[in-house]
Design brief:
Number of strands: 5
Strand content: 15-25%
CATH architecture: 3-Layer(aba) Sandwich
CATH class: Alpha Beta
Distance between the termini: 31 Å
Order of helices and strands: EHEHEHEHEHH
Helix content: 40-55%
CATH superfamily: Sugar-phosphate isomerase, RpiB/LacA/LacB
Shape: globular
Number of helices: 6
CATH topology: Ribose 5-phosphate Isomerase B, Chain: A
Radius of gyration: 14 Å
């Protein structure tokens, strides 16, 4: 699986550890920045990573910022993206199986690195929604996206 990762300055501190964990699972990683802890604007990196997922140049996106919320909001502005800000293994699993999330957003000021790795591993290992009821709901999200 190809994973794209994007961070702002707050997320940068966890990026190396997360990339190492993702690669240890046998996945390839495309890093779209940022490359330091110097202050940057998170929407730029959320958009860059999410466009790569939406364009099918990566299977999954991982975003890191202070809370996970800003990246989540920005990513969900990209057509075809279903980004979920997750704070537990359970939310990561449900985001994939119920909502077909294709981008994960994590808050580095709220979660330790080990927890972010655990959540990421679950997100990557969990298959996307396949039950009819979940697919029906995801399709309704797509219709809302098209309509607006």
């Amino acid at each position: 699986m190809k994973v794209v990762i994007g961070t702002d300055h707050a997320g940068f501190v966890y990026k190396t550890g997360l990339i190492k964990a993702i690669k240890s699972m046998g996945h390839s990683v495309l890093d779209v920045g940022t490359n330091s802890s110097e202050s940057v604007d998170y929407p730029d990196f959320a958009e860059k990573a999410s466009k790569i997922v939406a364009g099918r140049q990566a299977d999954i996106g991982i975003l890191l910022c202070g809370s996970g919320i800003g990246m989540d909001i920005a990513a969900n502005k990209i057509k075809g993206i279903r980004c979920a800000s997750c704070w537990s293994v359970e939310t990561a699993e449900l985001a994939r199986t119920h909502n077909g999330a294709n981008v994960l957003s994590l808050g580095t000021r709220l979660l330790p690195l080990e927890k972010c790795i655990e959540i990421t591993k679950t997100f990557l290992a969990t298959p996307s929604a396949s039950e009819e009821r979940h697919l029906r709901r995801i399709n309704k999200i797509k219709i809302i996206e098209e309509r607006n």
